[in-house]
């Protein structure tokens, strides 16, 4: 029986005020069922939708495949007999996984769980003294039974939650701003509509998603709501309760990807320039092809980066990428994007099929799951020589160019923390400063982020002053 879905409506601009509207989070009226429209022939101009991000909109995120609407109610999926969910909870859609995937042997899975439980019990010691082992285990894949706990520990959101008891409930009780709540409500049914948690319009998954996104607009009223936050929050909700998912989202927005979801989206534009420069180093053939047809990074990498590939990759690959992302930070996002471009545009044979902007953009916007094998993708991500220091050096270059051509940035790119170890060092340094201690980062292999970052000459001078005082 053919599937039926409502036509997805384009979202409103997430960074601009709109006329106030009722803030009821649930829609109980039965929606009229329309036949599935035939997919229109793509138009080259449609690719310029992504350019709307330059003015602070995210309209391109609404048209992510044909599954752009909720597919049912609490008791049934539009009256259709629903096939069995896959092991990740998907009922269908592009990210449905066939049962042909091989699983780990039970003994191996249990051994990994025991190792992770041991790390949880002595977390700070592992991060401080054996972080390479932590990183290796994240690259192998976190056991699904412990993924929620691991993501919270890696992002330090667990500590944030414990330091703010009752804060999430307090935010929930606030009324919120009507313009954000209206947009959030319209976006709920677009988030993974073929996943069992979000398939039911007004179901518990959509309710929890509404709670998280609303709470964030109150927690950070200067940022409000960005539509790319919804799929990120939805992925977190698939693994943990709403309060835990909220604090994990806070860490992603403030520590891992600061500025990505702010008005103007300067951070994602800046990272687009960094990404394109890194592409020239890692895959010159793909770089020249994109340059030839004037395909700017903002046209294809925006959804990749802002949604952390949750809309792009097969689900098993999404989870592996997120495991590494929480551990190693934004460099994993850069590496995944570079690996994808290398796989799609990195050979003469592949480029023969892409004779213009239209064909190239079709390839980039519709990555076939058959092209991506989990083991090969992870191995290429691990071995790609794109480091934190390389990203920071290129960031400095692009910030200078930005200031010369556009003026000052409103966000601070140096605030970004590169994963678990950087967050640990930042936390330790903050504790040392608050207690009146010395600059403990002088002997640390990881330079501090943000305003405390200093040049090598400054560090030498500080070290000399410290030695003289002794």
UniProtKB/TrEMBL annotation:
Pfam families (alphabetical): RabGAP-TBC
The keyword Transcription regulation appears for this protein: no
SUPFAM superfamilies found in the cross-reference section: Ypt/Rab-GAP domain of gyp1p
Region feature (Disordered): 1-42
Example of a GO cellular component annotation carried by this entry: plasma membrane
Rab-GAP TBC domain sequence ranges: 141-329
Keywords: GTPase activation
Molecular functions (GO terms): GTPase activator activity; small GTPase binding
Top-level taxon of origin: Eukaryota
Protein name (database record): TBC1 domain family, member 10b
Biological source species: Sparus aurata (Gilthead sea bream)
């Amino acid at each position: 029986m053919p599937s039926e879905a409502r036509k997805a409506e384009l979202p409103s601009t997430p960074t601009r005020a709109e006329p106030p509207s009722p803030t009821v989070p649930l829609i109980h009226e039965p929606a009229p069922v329309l036949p599935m429209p035939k997919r229109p022939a793509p138009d080259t101009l449609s690719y310029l939708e992504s350019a709307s991000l330059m003015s602070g909109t995210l309209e391109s995120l609404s048209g992510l495949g044909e599954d752009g609407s909720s597919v049912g109610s609490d008791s049934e999926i539009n009256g259709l007999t629903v096939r069995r969910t896959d092991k990740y909870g998907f009922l269908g859609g592009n990210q449905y996984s066939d049962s042909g995937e091989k699983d780990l042997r039970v003994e191996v899975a249990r051994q990994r769980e025991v190792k992770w439980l041991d790390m949880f019990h002595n977390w700070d010691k592992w991060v401080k003294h054996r972080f390479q082992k932590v990183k290796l285990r994240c690259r192998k894949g976190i056991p699904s039974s412990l993924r929620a706990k691991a993501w919270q520990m890696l992002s330090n959101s667990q500590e944030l939650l414990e330091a703010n008891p009752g804060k999430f409930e307090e935010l929930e009780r606030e009324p919120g701003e009507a313009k954000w709540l209206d947009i959030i409500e319209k976006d709920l049914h677009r988030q993974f509509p073929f996943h069992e948690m979000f398939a039911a319009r007004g179901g518990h998954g959509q309710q929890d998603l509404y709670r998280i996104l609303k709470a964030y607009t109150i927690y950070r009223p200067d940022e409000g709501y960005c539509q790319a936050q919804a799929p990120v929050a939805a992925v977190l909700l698939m693994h943990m309760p709403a309060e835990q998912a909220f604090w994990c989202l806070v860490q992603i927005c403030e520590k891992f990807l600061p500025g990505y979801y702010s008005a103007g989206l300067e951070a994602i534009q800046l990272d687009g320039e960094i990404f394109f420069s890194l592409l020239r180093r890692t895959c010159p053939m793909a770089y020249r092809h994109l340059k030839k047809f004037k395909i700017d990074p903002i046209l294809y990498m925006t959804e990749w980066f802002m949604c952390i590939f949750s809309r792009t990759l097969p689900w098993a690959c999404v989870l592996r990428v997120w495991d590494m992302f929480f551990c190693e930070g934004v460099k994993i996002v850069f590496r995944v994007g570079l690996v994808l471009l290398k796989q799609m545009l990195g050979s003469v044979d592949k480029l023969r099929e892409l004779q213009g902007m239209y064909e190239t953009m079709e390839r980039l916007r519709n990555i076939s799951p058959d092209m991506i094998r989990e083991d090969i993708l992870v191995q290429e991500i691990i071995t790609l020589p794109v480091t934190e220091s390389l990203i920071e050096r290129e960031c400095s270059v692009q910030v200078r160019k930005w200031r010369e051509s556009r003026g000052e940035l409103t966000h601070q790119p140096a605030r970004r923390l590169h994963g678990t170890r950087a967050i640990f060092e930042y936390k330790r340094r903050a504790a040392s400063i608050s207690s009146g201690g010395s600059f403990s980062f002088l002997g640390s292999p990881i330079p501090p982020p943000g305003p405390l970052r200093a040049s090598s000459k400054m560090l030498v001078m500080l070290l000399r002053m410290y030695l003289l005082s002794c």
